[in-house]
Amino acid sequence: MPRDRAEWIAAGVILAVVVLALVQFGSPIAGALLRAWYVLPPMAVGVGVTLVVRWQRRAATERARAVRLASLRLTLEELDALDPTDFELAVRDLMARDGIAARHVGQQGDQAADVIGKDTIGRTFVAQCKHTTSGGRVTSRVMYEVNGTAGPAHGADIAVVVTNGTFTRDARAWGDRHRVYWIDRDRLRQWAEDGASLQRTLRLPARSRPRWPASEPTA
């Protein structure tokens, strides 16, 4: 039997749909089922309870994930040991920890975006991830590519390049001038290991929603 109001509502809706379908099609089978109407309520209740239980399990799974993400901490050693795809997924989870509804989009032809998300005030974040196992350095070319696609292709308000390595001096300077944010190894430690939010790590204003600047020629 239904245990609460939600289960009764679900059972009632399903029962109504079944009855309407039977009346609509009016087949001999439908007539037989209508004559045996007393079996329909238990059937509807059973289906309704199943749906409600599935919804409750899904909600519980989401709550458990939210609790796990709220306390997520990743050391640089753990991040170094990941492959590039798992590094992108780690960035997604860190963004989710900080209240950004993030999804992984990285694949071939991703137009310089591996993770895209939206925060609670409506800002769209686009992250390009660069994982290295050899202390690699991100160059200005990556910053140019992100600047050229983040706004036009992905509707970004905030674009950020994340690496477990470092950036060249020119890449950092170019990013600062053109508002392509960057997270190098030191900033990654603050964000992933120490638990500072992405917004704090990037020193973003708490409320304002920046408009993505028009792309400029890179030549």
TrEMBL record:
GO molecular function, one term: restriction endodeoxyribonuclease activity
Recorded coiled-coil stretches: none
Origin: domain of life: Bacteria
Record's keyword annotation contains rRNA-binding: no
Keyword Transmembrane: yes
Domain Restriction endonuclease type IV Mrr: 79-191
GO biological process: DNA restriction-modification system
Ranges that cross the membrane: 7-30, 36-55
Alphabetically ordered keywords of this record: Endonuclease, Hydrolase, Membrane, Nuclease, Transmembrane, Transmembrane helix
Protein name, as recorded: Restriction endonuclease
Organism, scientific name: Streptomyces phaeolivaceus
